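Section handout 9: paired folding examples.
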Amino acid sequence: MKRLLITGFSGFVSRHYLDHLKAKGEAYQVLGVDVNPPKFSPESYAPVLQIEFMSVNLLDEEKVGAMIADFRPDLVLHLASFSSVAYSWEHPAECFHNNTKIFLNLAEAVRAAGLMECRILSVGSSEEYGNVSEDEMPLREDRKLYPVSPYAVARVAQEMLAKVLVEGYGMKILLTRSFNHMGPYQDQRFVVPSFIKRIMEIRDAGRTEGEIETGDVSIVRDFVDVRDVVRAYDLLLQNGTPGEVYNICGGKGMTLRGVIDEIANLLGVEVKTKTDPSLVRPGDNHVIIGSSEKIFRELGWEATIPLEKTLKDMIVSMENE
């Protein structure tokens, strides 16, 4: 039975990854690591997945080293991070230190334990590309990176560190630049779940129209369902090429205003937006649309779940909370 370590275990991506593995029916011994306990029941994945949860701060080198030496993973899905761009503007030093340090602690612990065949998936972000003109879309992995937020700089640093470890030590690290993914169970601090919550509140108050405050709703993002994302992560962990970077994206762009309109239509209300300057990020990338040609060519992956289904499932999930 393969041993799988998942960091950021209590987040929504991890939960969907576990759903994916259970549906496949492949047996794994799983160690889930997070600073917060999961809101779901690890026992519900038995007997296919034998899951143990540990509360570990990945900034603690000694604890990370002991954990890796004891568990000796075959695979590592590294999801843990401060993933909010807005938070990184408020706390740039903390964000950079956390995201780069926890990755290094993890990778160094794997190397120190002599687990050179352990495959690690280092999750990055489309934010690494920075501001790009629309005629340069879709973004491909060989494009130069121009990060424009503290969060994006940290992700680029993590990616460069990973490549150094692959080239210098022969470690088996796979890399992604994951575009905006969303789906059921996603924290309402993120943009699309926050839209859904506030538009549901308009509907639940018995109103057929209302207004919500937003940032810049003209920006364009490449949205991809988290269930498609975890399929890609599984393929990469099993068969991706160490040291290579793969876009995980849908290949289509939509404005945030368009997403709001889709949600409003599904909920049967009309929604106006009012820009709150405090929600507008400095130097925000205006358009981000990716190409998934590389991962499709090498592993046959492409996004398949339409935006309407994603939003419908998110609404149902939030209604059942």
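Moving on to protein 2 of 2.
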Amino acid sequence: MFLAALFIVTLTLAGIVYSLRSARDISARFPNAGELIDVGGFRMNSVHLPAKARADLAPLVFIHGASGNLLDQLHAFAPAFEGRAEMLFVDRPGHGYSERGGRANDRPDGQADAIAKLMEKRGITRAIIVGHSFGGAIAASFALRHPEKTTGLILLAPATHPWPGGIDWYYRLTALPYVGWLFAHTLAAPIGLRRIDSGTRSVFYPNPRPVDYIDKTAPHLVLRPLAFRNNAVDVANLHAYVSEVAPRYQEITAPTIIVSGDSDDIVLADIHSRGLARDIAGSELLWIGNLGHKPDYVVTDVVVAAVEKLAGKPRDLGAAVRFAEERLNDGKAL
């Protein structure tokens, strides 16, 4: 009995050492590209690209999804809007290099409030809020809680409504007290490192993942123990949160455009995207055939056109969607 217990303790300690060493190596491989700013008791990380003299668009704030960090949206959109808008790319609380802060940040509304404070620190009074996936729930909450700061909403494959079924087992396990901490500090890194390639490909499916996506966007950062647990708590809390908040989406008055695909295997677009189009008066749903969960990378041109339309420019979004579908039907991405 003693030897069995000693063996288990030894394996656990070895797992913790491996995970901590992996976290150190991941941070060294993907060092922080942003700046940490205190937003009231904790620091948030962001990359702020100021407007240029020829800027013709409103400021843009980008909110990444689950298991992500600011580099995901940065590499999708910084080249597309360079020189045209002031841009703020945010590591959500507890993700990337942002600190977690208090328990309020376990929910999308708390994270929306933190982003509002960060905008104030960066001198951004109003912006078009762009949210992808889980970031869509935060963007919608931002519009509800901070309408005076919301010029418009761009929601990309958002996760915003109650859905049937549950979540993956490792989210439920990691969100648990004590056991979750142990899992995040022992098994998350070795399992996750083996799934980085297949996992990122599945997020893009049926569209091809860019060949340099992993090296540029650092999905490894979520495998560090604290980030892994924060991510799991976010996902585990989402269903209850959107069940509570979704009935209020009808209060959103900001101009809203939703970009979603009929081949999204990550979120149920029929529930989330069509639900938003139903709930937010005057919103526009751009429904794109053969598009998966990554409109930010696969149909960046459509998102740019959507932002331009919110900025008051005459844009035929139907034509942009048709062009994107023709490209995707030919098996081509941007």
